[in-house]
């Protein structure tokens, strides 16, 4: 009887040993892209554009385009091996920030587990595409309403540490589809732009209206203020 039980037990052990390590099972993560707009109410309070007390002075950033050609992922797990991968995109991901839509569907299979740290590195730009453009409107004293166009022209990687909505560790499960929301916070990005910078800026005259173009060649003082805040204005929320 013991011999028979032994013959039954050994194949069971072999079967279990051949089972897949749970820490390698994939959890699906959908990538969504968009922005947190800078509206008139927020800009009056945060962007210091109402210094002279004149009503109706504001900066509003509500639209834009983000181009991503590659995403690197680095994940540190509590009780399992760390996870690293790189995804290339040709054609690139072109994001309409105002609409919160992208030119292609992006989903990753990431090994499940409890992540102590999760970092995304976004490589921006592609041939024929600016890495980042953000647009809006400024209403300025004596100048009236002007269009705003911020152009980030450097095709370099931008990294950010992903967070959960509660700010805790991130848990991915194989039977639960998670969502990673990649957002550019326009309020953070333009927080240090003040009324003095805008009223002293150079204005272009395209056919569709006077525009304050902000890039490394035009209005570079404003560009430097904004560009230096890009990495801290990009966030990834995992739910």
Provide a quick synopsis of the model.
This protein has helices at residues 2-17, 40-46, 186-189, 195-199, 220-227, 230-233, and strands at residues 26-36, 58-77, 83-96, 101-102, 107-111, 113-124, 132-140, 144-152, 157-161, 170-172, 178-185, 211-214, 234-238. The chain is α+β, with helices and mostly antiparallel strands. Strands 2, 3, 4, 6, 7, 8, 9, 10 and 12 form a 9-stranded mixed sheet that branches. It has a 4-stranded mixed sheet with strand order 5-1-11-13.
Tell me the layout of helices and strands.
Elements: H1 2-17, E1 26-36, H2 40-46, E2 58-77, E3 83-96, E4 101-102, E5 107-111, E6 113-124, E7 132-140, E8 144-152, E9 157-161, E10 170-172, E11 178-185, H3 186-189, H4 195-199, E12 211-214, H5 220-227, H6 230-233, E13 234-238
Parallel strand pairs: 1-11, 8-12
Antiparallel strand pairs: 1-5, 2-3, 2-6, 2-7, 3-4, 6-9, 6-10, 7-8, 11-13
What does this structure look like?
The longest helix has 16 residues, at 2-17. The protein is built from 6 helices and 13 strands. The chain starts with a helix and ends with a strand. It has one domain (22-238). With 239 residues, it is an alpha+beta fold. The chain is elongated and about 70 Å long.
C-alpha-based Rg, rounded: 24 Å
Please count the beta strands (DSSP E, at least 2 residues each): 13
Question: Which H/E pattern describes the elements?
Answer: HEHEEEEEEEEEEHHEHHE
| Structure class | alpha+beta
Number of domains: 1
Biggest sheet record: 9 strands, mixed
Q: End-to-end distance, in Å?
A: 53 Å
How would the global form be characterised?
elongated
Average pLDDT over all residues = 87
Helix-residue proportion: 10-25%
Instruction: Give the DSSP E fraction (strand runs of 2 or more residues).
Output: 35-45%
Task: Supply the number of helical segments.
Answer: 6
Q: pLDDT below 50 for ≥5 consecutive residues: which ranges?
A: 1-10, 12-18, 44-54
